[in-house]
Design goal:
Number of strands: 12
CATH topology of the largest domain: Metallo-beta-lactamase, Chain A
CATH class of the largest domain: Alpha Beta
Bound molecules: zinc ion
Order of helices and strands: EEEHEHHEHHHEEEEEHEEHHHH
CATH architecture of the largest domain: 4-Layer Sandwich
């Protein structure tokens, strides 16, 4: 079975999901969330008769703190636990100082309250991935694909038995019952072309459902992936327009982008649902990530 755990993050219930794969030889967790949501994680595990000590492995889609922040605390608590992560993310799991510094630039003095403790994992406990692996963990077969675009070190996991692709942030953010999807584009790694290729990779698995960290499982896979693509292109284009039109400074560009994106969301969702998407990540972070992408690519 694959269970969706509601980590009951600050943003409220149904904002942050972990995936619990229950196998014949133990349990595996996909994206444990941040340390600040550990109570929610423990409750979720207990509902399925599991404890942190039962976990064989944590599979990280990527190392952003809302997905993997608790990895070090869990590894300390469970000495058998192995942490799987893309090879580009592995050094930051072993030494999170640069990751924390980078997140601090976005979140400032809200860091500790938002994410809680971030502690290193001993390198011998880390399994570095490149994509293309077939893992056997807890008696389950898991396929790995390299899926950058949202982050350089993003991987996705396919649980063949349930047909579920655990896609982290690469298939966007969606809150049921809405069909609306937003690809989160925070700095520093956004790459629109790679993101599209990663969506091709996910589609090539022909999964019967997607597990999104924000939030939950969706089985309208093809339509969902098409909406991610359309929205990614729309947002990238809006950001590009903000960079090409005359503006005093980035503050003015961000304000223009926020207004346009906010209007576009509200038109499709209604204002209150649009606000829920904005609490997942401030819209200015979307601009910052996309602006970095465009500015790093002269001639685009
Ligand atoms: Zn992320």
């Amino acid at each position: 079975m694959l269970h969706v755990l509601d980590l009951d993050f600050h943003a409220g219930p149904r904002s942050l999901a972990g995936g619990l794969l229950d196998g014949p030889e133990g349990a595996v967790l996909v994206d444990p969330g941040p340390s600040s949501a550990l109570d929610g994680l423990r409750r979720g595990l207990a509902e399925h008769g599991r404890f942190v000590g039962d976990l064989q492995a944590v599979l990280l889609t990527h190392i952003h703190l809302d997905h993997g922040g608790a990895a070090g605390v869990l590894a300390r608590e469970n000495p058998r636990l192995r942490i799987f992560v893309h090879e580009r993310g592995a050094p930051h799991v072993a030494d999170p100082s640069r990751l924390v510094a980078s997140a601090s630039r976005l979140y400032g003095d809200r860091m500790e309250a938002l994410w809680g403790e971030v502690t290193p994992v001993e390198p011998t406990r880390i399994e570095a991935l490149r994509g293309g692996e077939r893992l056997r963990v807890a008696g389950r077969d898991i396929e790995v694909a390299y899926t950058p675009g949202h982050a350089w070190h993003h991987v996705s996991y396919l649980d063949r038995e349930t047909g579920t692709a655990c896609v982290g942030d690469v298939a966007g953010v969606r809150f049921a019952p809405s069909e609306e999807v937003i690809p989160p584009t925070p700095p520093p790694d956004i790459d629109v072309e790679q993101w599209h290729q990663s969506l091709d990779q996910v589609a090539a698995w022909s999964p019967s459902r997607l597990l999104l960290t924000h939030f939950g499982t969706f089985d309208d896979v093809e339509a969902h992936l098409e909406r991610v693509r359309a929205r990614l292109d729309e947002m990238a284009s809006l950001c590009r327009q903000s960079l090409e039109r005359p503006a005093r400074d980035d503050g003015e560009r961000i304000a223009w982008f926020r207004t346009r994106l906010g209007e576009s969301l509200a038109a499709r969702l209604g204002a209150s649902a649009a606000a829920a998407y904005e609490t997942a990540q401030p819209l200015e972070h979307y601009w910052q990530g996309l602006a970095r992408y465009w500015r790093g690519r002269p001639g685009r």
